[in-house]
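Input (Beta-fructofuranosidase, insoluble isoenzyme 1-like):
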Amino acid sequence: TNIIKYYRTGYHFQPPKHWINDPNGPMYYNGVYHLFYQYNPKGSVWGNIVWAHSVSTDLINWVHLDHAIYPSKEFDQYGTWSGSVTILPNNIPVILYTGIIDVNNTQVQNYAIPADASDPLLREWIKPDENPLIVADNSINKTRFRDPTTAWLGRDGHWRMVVGSARRHRGVAILYRSRDFLKWTKAQHPLHSSSKTGNWECPDFFPVSLNHTNGLDTSVDGENVKHVLKVSLDDTRFEYYTIGTYDTKNDRYIPDRKMIDGWKGLRLDYGNFYASKTFYDPSKNRRVLWGWANESDVVPKDAIKKGWAGIQAIPRKLWLDPSGKQLVQWPVEELETLRNKKVELRNHKLNKGEIVEVEGITAAQADVEVTFSFSSLKNAEEFDPSWAHLYAKDVCAIRGSAVQGGLGPFGLLTLASENLEEYTPVFFRVFKVKNKYKVLMCSDASRSSVRNNPKMYKPSFAGFVDVDLSDKKLSLRSLIDHSVVESFGAGGKTCITSRVYPALALFSDARLLAFNNGTETITIETLNAWSMNKPDR
Ligand code: DQQ
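Output:
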């Protein structure tokens, strides 16, 4: 049977067909949201990359326009790779992007401007003759020199922006400065770099407020402002970020002391989420994050049969946690306009081994929010000291949803088949470490499909949740959409996106359940679940 047709999402961003990857140059301009993205107009594997262009007034319903940027000049004839938008003070949006200029993959930085800035949709973009704006000097590896950020203005009235790069195994954010946005000079020192992280792709550098959840425009600085640097690690397709201080005097970014500046650092998403990029949305005073959720079937045959590959995760509002120690993310509120049929559970107890089905919604295309509570922490299982060096995902692989615990595992079984031959559990497990507690959140694809393609990648994604358990509650929201489950633990402190490819839990055959597999009884205080409508796309 032709099951792969069921993998197309219902409400995530995807064009009608073909391959997509990185979100590029997201912006809000004159009442319209723009999303550009890396796109192959000729097929469903990576290649022939152009900047496809879609517009929206609500980040949910989209209209697809003609490609904004595609290879057409000497300075980009072998590729138009990722980049960002900066809206200049005269209200002209400028795209900075990476051009590939030869078969050796040599990378340069170019710019493009709207042919007519009064066109409400900014349909046509031109690439002026001053291009390329920046070529790599001899100190830079020309094939690792890409993905310019949104530029910011310093107090001296000069622009700054960074380009992702590497010096051997050291990831580097090369800093450039300009007075007029045309002539760019490399700063003596990079904005930041970190050893043994490999090539940095798609850097993102932006301010966040210490006092509120509102976003800040990219040039904002001053008291009660922290800065975030996010990088995408070429070698493994994971990202990490740090929070720190932007030392404007030396034009350097310094991560806060306790930040892990490397592989084991904080992640915006502990799952399938890459090449992400934020933008400031002045209409709602928020910073919004876009990220690419690649296919994880790694079976090109499927991509070719499907005729498409890649989706964008639901855009998220992002802000600094009051602790200052991490970011918090939540799906943009506009998503809630797609909520349709609602079902709910109230004060439902789950004893050890119990499950409850959430009936009456289209479980393959749903939004579910749940708050779990418990009366004591004393049953939490010991955290094995030998796991101390492991990633959360490794602990999840050892202690999955089927392994009985003390306080947890409890959570949701998403995209579950009739007899639970398939399911993607999203759950918590609370561990005791000395006198403290450690909360693990997993989105475990290991049983997501009975398809036995040996190449299928079914990872047990997981992250720890830095949450105060004194109220003995844990909340979870999952966005379920046929081949994707995007989850937000503890109000968005830990986020995990899984791509999954069930063979049985398809469309109306998919079920949604809540479960508890720990000795401590769990109460579902509230569970609200909605069928999700399809937006225009
Ligand atoms: N994708 C683009 C590059 C970027 C990479 C090419 C990240 O610009 O470094 O499609 O996924």
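The mean pLDDT is 96.
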